[in-house]
Amino acid sequence: MTDFFKGIPKIAFEGRDTDNDFAFRHYDPDAVVMGKPMKDHLRFAAAYWHSFAWPGGDPFGGQTFERPWFADGMQAAKHKADVAFEMFQILGVPYFCFHDADVRPEGDSFAENTKNLAEIVDYFAEKMDATGVKLLWGTANLFSHRRFMAGAATNPDPDVFAFSAATIKTCMDATIKLGGENYVLWGGREGYETLLNTDMGRERQQAGRMLQMVVDYKHKTGFQGAILIEPKPQEPTKHQYDYDVATVYGFLKDFGLEGEVKVNIEQGHAILAGHTFEHELALARELGIFGSIDMNRNDYQSGWDTDQFPNNVPEMALAYYEVLRAGGFTTGGTNFDAKLRRQSLDPEDLILAHVGGMDACAAGLKAAAAMLTDGKLEAARDARYAGWDTPDAQALLKQATLDHCYDCVLRDDINPAPRSGQQERLENLVSRYL
């Protein structure tokens, strides 16, 4: 045991009327929602990078956090793991997620990185056996080190491509060894700043080939989890190849991988792409590539990815409504890709940020389940499109030609009147469940 969280109790459900900061008001893990426990709907995971690796910097200032594990070497890495698993147990989160660079020291070579990762993976395995905490997904950090400044898979240097592929292999091996349920690819620098020095055709082919190699390795190893791509627009590169769900799906179709890869959708990234979170979730569901979510929020007055913990229950309700419409998570879950504000220095802040985020998600889930069970929103949507359910309308959709439509409109003197979309009425309906 460490003393980093000394004096902080294990967080329990106490209900809406409690005045205890260190308690859940909405998240009751064993409460049954639509036939299964809330914990199995939400499948919460804590993000290793923001919680334990981020030093509190921003574009205009350096480190503000002082953590006892902020040092080089395996001893510091193991201390960080000790603290991390203590937090997982305090919160009762069933899962965690990590990049390789979050958990192992950076070595002087690929071989040293691999050795360091293998050692910490063995240490994680002991921790997981002792606590019952599981791995939702692993991934490789192919964006922070200066070698990746021009991308990883899309780099103009084939040596960087090879180094990146080798790193992915080690991270997939680590994920498999720890029983991870997914493997995520986040192309943090898979994009470009200017076409003056970029061959877009080459770079797309390189990215497609890398993804094919990942899928091939999944099948070679027998990995039963999902391969996930996390869409991300703009930041840090100006033009990202994985901009949003639609862009990723087009990329997957181009390389014949739409049946092999799904998406891990982040709320903050959806906002940066000019979408709502529920839009991205609904589109992924319709395209058959919904996998998992990274839960956070952006500051709507800022033009970058602020990665704040979620606190907007109406937004969470609409998000989980789409998750439930997709049939819920299978291998995926709710990972808090969120970080403290750089002035929130205390260990208590880290716990309470997660408590608030988990409660917001739980409240949103309950509202979403009530909406879906009640059926009024679905009924209103069905009524709006009811005209398409007639035999004539189905024939129009499947068989008609422009000439046929022309003849029908002219013959029957069709002159349709506009009908209300009733948006405000439906917004009021949603508010009743919050």
From TrEMBL:
The keyword tRNA processing does not apply. One of its GO terms (molecular function) is xylose isomerase activity. SUPFAM superfamilies: Xylose isomerase-like (SSF51658). Its EC number is 5.3.1.5. GO terms for cellular component: cytoplasm. Binds 2 magnesium ions per subunit. It comes from the Bacteria. Mg(2+) 2 binds at E266, H269, D305, D307. Keywords: Carbohydrate metabolism, Cytoplasm, Isomerase, Magnesium, Metal-binding, Xylose metabolism. The active site is at H99, D102. Mg(2+) 1 binds at E230, E266, D294, D337. Its main location: cytoplasm. InterPro entries: Xyl_isomerase-like_sf (IPR036237), Xylose_isom_bac (IPR013452), Xylose_isomerase (IPR001998). GO terms for biological process: D-xylose metabolic process. It is found in: Cytoplasm. Its cofactor is Mg(2+). It catalyses: alpha-D-xylose = alpha-D-xylulofuranose. It is an enzyme of class 5 (isomerase). Belongs to the xylose isomerase family. Homotetramer. This is Xylose isomerase. The lineage of its organism: Bacteria, Pseudomonadati, Pseudomonadota, Alphaproteobacteria, Rhodobacterales. The gene is xylA.
